[in-house]
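Working notes for the structural subgroup meeting. M.R. asked for a predicted model of this chain before we commit to crystallization trials. I am recording the input and output together here so anyone reviewing the notebook later can reproduce the run.

Input as submitted:
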Amino acid sequence: MNGHWSPFAPAGNHNDAPAGPPTPPHGTPTPATPPQGQDGGYGQPYPAQPSLPPGVNPDTAAVPVVAPYPQGPPQAPQHPPQSPHPPQAPQHPPAGPQYPPHTGAVPYQPQSAPPASAPHPMAPPTSGPPVFVPQEPMSGPPMQANLPAVYGEPTPPTADDFARRRTASPSKPTASMGARAVLRRGTFGLVSLPPSKWEREVLRSTDAVRRNFGGLRQVTVVNPKGGAGKTVAVLMLAMSFGQRRGGYVLAWDNNETQGTLGMRAQQDFHNRTVRDLLSDLTHFQGPTGRVGDLSQYVRSQGEAMFDVLASDESATAGEMLTSQAFGDIRQIVSRFYKLIVVDTGNNVRAANWQSAMDATDQLVITMSARNDSAETAARMLDHLEQSGRTELVRRAVTVVSMPAHRKDLDLPAVQRHFAARTRSVLLAPYEKLLDSGEPIRYGMLSQATKEAWLKIAAAVAEGL
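Returned structure, recorded in token form:
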């Protein structure tokens, strides 16, 4: 019958048996043959399968599964496959990043699963061949936060940049006074010398006098001894402050009876005194009082640029000024002036004298170049310290008016005593115009006298 094999069938008949390769002897392993018409994926053949050991049935042998890319986190195998030839580490590490060649299939490699809360910033696709994106190192300038709209264009300036011009260093100072200034003007600026030591001292004193005191300030000049130079000191201090500060300075005679400040000052179109101001006090206590109205009671000093409020010049008129009268007048004049220089009388027990001490910001002690004048001033300082004004005494400035001849004065002893009790001791040079007793003509004062009193005014300003 057809299809029944018989050992007696002829050996040369091949019609009933399909053609194929010869059958190997029994016990020889047969290599696995891939199915026809299939490849390893993407047109590539499957990789060569490893040979099986003897005695293993090829039909039941486990064949590793090759996938284009592992789906999800793989599980670590119990027995990872052993490579027949383990790779050898290169002797020299290659330069730059190394990437495996693209073969279309990625062999299975066990790896740990990434944390679920922090995914990889560049996750590969879930299907298809792997895509390798090399990370190139960044080059060029670092990124800036505030770049202009078009990179490379200059940033427009701001108001702060414009305001910084005020902080620019000042120009190099040049001499404007003395022989150095004459030389500069004579050479039309070709020879320009810096200020001399004398000019620098004048400029420093001027700056101290001109500075802002931050409110009304009162300077009180005291010495119970008559002829101690109080009135002259008041007028010279007011002139030094007035000329440098441009006004708003008042010299006030607070003598309890008859004073001499109005006699030594320049005269004005009226002869009104503090008594007249007290009688018209109600006109200035309301909102109607103006600085123009006050000019009818004070005396302008012209080029000296300050005003004088004189005391009563009659020895028999009226009563003594009280503490209340001093407070009322000070409240009025404080509305129109920034600095008040107060002249005092000779009675330290008078109520208006005590009120002047209580309102004082800077105390000035004057004395003539006589031992009795200096001793009277020293006893007055004892009285102020005993009445609780020790700090006012320690910050005081002492001014010694020098005589034409020094033969009768022990100047070193006076300087040592008052330097130990007050802040500074300064000397006022002798000026015949000031010693004459006549009204002071400020334009006729010597340059040495003006500079000496400017220095004294600068020392006073340091205490304000």
